[in-house]
Each structure stands twice: as structure tokens, then as C-alpha cells.
Amino acid sequence: MQILDNFLYILIEGEPESPEVAFIDRVIGNLINQGLLSNINYRVVEIGGSGNFNSIAKLIYQKSKLHQSIPVIGISDRDFRTQDRIDRGLAKQDHQLIKYESAKIICWGRHEWENFLLEETEIIANLLNQIPSKSLISKPFRRNTTNSLTKIQLDEWLIQYFQKSIFEELFECLKFRFRETANLQRLNLDKPKCKLLSLVDIEIWFKNQIGSKAKESRINIFSLKSMFQDIVQENFWQSCIHDPSQLDVQQAKIFFRGKEALEHLRKEAIKFLAIENLQEEIFKQAVLQASEKNTNSLIVQELRLMLQSYFEQAANLTEI
Hints:
four-stranded parallel β-sheet; globular; mainly alpha
């Protein structure tokens, strides 16, 4: 990896082919051209998993002049982290991060970047309505003239999906929080052998897992038994877990997994419009490309707010 002097480095979770890498690059360029971010030299670098943030940052600190004054930026998924844990990370002083060659981790305001695209249902509907339907015997493609998607239909599918996914999302939250808390022991919860359909099912499964993992690792982790009730008693989960109809959809767009929700919309649209072929990554790229030049797009606004102060600092130091 070539490290260039006086460049601000922005690390993101993802692989080289991930659509968000090129998207973030283009959005930053657009924001600079519109005068909404300072004009500086920067690099967006995909690093795989979040565990690589500090190892890559250390390499950059050792060779970059700019990063003797500004921390290397890492944009991370919020995942199922609590706000207080995110706030503790943000509270770390920049000079301390630089001293110990650690990245400044800034979490998306939602579970992951795909969550922001859940607000773009009007754009998604317009894109999908332009895609040809399945082929006929006589012609390779035909325009869809019988069905068309609307923002209202996509929003309704999203509501239905969230209401059906509450227990699955709670299960994923438990897995993440357990793995994060038991990180030093490198423990992961096993996938249940059957579908968990109730709060009681999940609690029994979780307690059994605590016992099983304690034996497997020979480490006392029984204090983690309280984790289940701690999560269930959080305001967001309390509001919907006993009555899915009370689910706050706007909150679900923040805390549930956006990647899976977006994929659900794609699959429902394919069936509804009888689309021949629409791969997941192509679909994401199309939605991102339609959103990137719109400064009112929520994901564009989020990126600007994440980066603005660091771009201003870099501009003052490098005088481009």
C-alpha cells in the first residue's frame, strides 16, 4: 500500500469490489466541487473487517506528515452497539489516538450504510420501473406495462418486513453483543438448530449457549447471562417486542440490518415486476449512483457531517 504525504486517509470496512468504496470517493468529490467540503488530498481505503482499522492506521502514521496532526479516520458500521459505547469511542482525544497510532472510529448514524438507502424508496421505485420484464418466446425483453412500483408499495413492504423480523434482529443483536463483550475469549454463539419464534425461545437458547460456551472455553462467562434481559429492557426493543404492530419504523430503519432489508425489497420487486435478472450488487450500485449527486440524500448528508471538521483541519495544515 503506497502512503502519500499530506493526504487524509479514510478507512472503511469493505472489500475492493464493494460499491460503497467508489460511491464514497465520488460523493466526497462532489461535495468538494460544491464547496461543501474543503478541497484537500484524500484517499478512501477499504480494509476488510473492522479489526484491521488500527493495523492499517499504524502504517499510515509512520509515513504520513498530515497524520502527525490529524488522526486516521475509520468509518465503521454502527452494528448493534449502544449509543453510550459509540460516544465513549468518539470521546477519545485526537492527540491520544495519534500518539498510540490508533484510528479515529466514526460510526454511521445507522446500523450500516445500506440503512440510509431505505429512505430512498422513491428513487428505488423509479429505477425498478425502468427495468424490462422477463423475456417472451418471441422477443428477448418487454417493457412492463401492467405493473409499476410506487414509493408507497416499497414502504409497505419495508414495514411488513420489519414487523416479521423483530425476533431475528434481536437474535443478531445478542450474537453481536456477546461476541463484542467476550472478544478476548474469541467466543461466538452457535446458530440455533430451529427457528426462534418467541422471546421465551430466544432466552432459553441464549442461557443454554452461555452454559455451553463456558464449558467449551473453560472461562467463567456466567455474568453474561444478564445480557439478554439488559437488551430486552432497552427502550427500542421494549416498544415492539411484545406487539410488532407498535414497531417504530423510523427506529427500525436505524437499528435493524439495512443490508437484509434492502435485499428484501429487491426480491419483492423482482417478483412484483417479473424482472428477468437484477443482481444484488448491480441493484445497490444503481441506487447509490442515483443518490450520490443529491445533496439532500441522507447518506450524502451523513458523509459530509462525518468528515467536515477533519477536512477543514487538513485544509488549514496543507494549504492546497
